[in-house]
Amino acid sequence: MSFLDRFALWLGRMTAWCFAAIVLIMVYEVAARYGFNAPTTWAHEVSILLASIGFVIGGAFCMAERTHMRISLLVDRRPRLASFSEALGLVAGAIYLGGLSYAAWRMAEKALWRFSLSGAWDPERSGSTLNSPLPGYLKALLFVGCVLFLLLILRRMLPLHNRWRLR
């Protein structure tokens, strides 16, 4: 297992705690809203942030753990198709994530590198009552997650390339 795989597994396990934090935040929000008639302005937005972190890192985590969902009907009947099927999936994933990484970079760049007329940094904001800069940070996180996932796919393609080349 490479350093990249171990890093993605560690990062995935750390971000899994985001979902536990969401549960605690929602319990607090319900108690504050209905028990004390004092709803929060931040609970919904922070919950979305935490869930987004978990989902963005989840793809790379599943790739490192080799637990992505597979439809194995043909591979089970014809084991010779297994390496071809894996290679096809990796190539398709690399093409998709390459495009998604580029698009995420463009979105993050536009969301984060914004400045007001006075020259102050003014990243994209949510427009909610909290009006936090989380949308810009989430777009940057999407870029990081896509690149990590792409690197894991490219790393996984190396042994397949060597195996096909030797035939």
From TrEMBL:
Q: What is its main location?
A: membrane
Residue ranges spanning the membrane: these are 7-28, 48-66, 87-105, 137-158
Query: GO molecular function terms here?
Result: transmembrane transporter activity
Oligomeric state and interaction partners are given as:
The complex comprises the extracytoplasmic solute receptor protein and the two transmembrane proteins.
Is Transmembrane one of the keywords? Answer: yes
Instruction: Kindly list the places in or outside the cell where this protein is found, as annotated in its UniProt entry.
Output: Cell inner membrane
* Annotated Pfam families: DctQ
Keyword match DNA repair: no
**Entry GO terms, CC:** plasma membrane
What job does this protein perform? Answer: Part of the tripartite ATP-independent periplasmic (TRAP) transport system.
Q: Which organism does this sequence originate in?
A: Denitrobaculum tricleocarpae
What is the protein name given in its UniProt record? Answer: TRAP transporter small permease protein
- What family name appears in the similarity comment? Belongs to the TRAP transporter small permease family.
Q: How does it sit in the membrane?
A: Multi-pass membrane protein
> Which keywords does this chain's UniProt record carry?
Cell inner membrane, Cell membrane, Membrane, Transmembrane, Transmembrane helix, Transport
Which segments does the entry list as coiled coil?
A: none
Q: Where's the Tripartite ATP-independent periplasmic transporters DctQ component domain?
A: 22-158
User: Which InterPro entries does the entry link to?
Assistant: DctQ, TRAP_DctQ
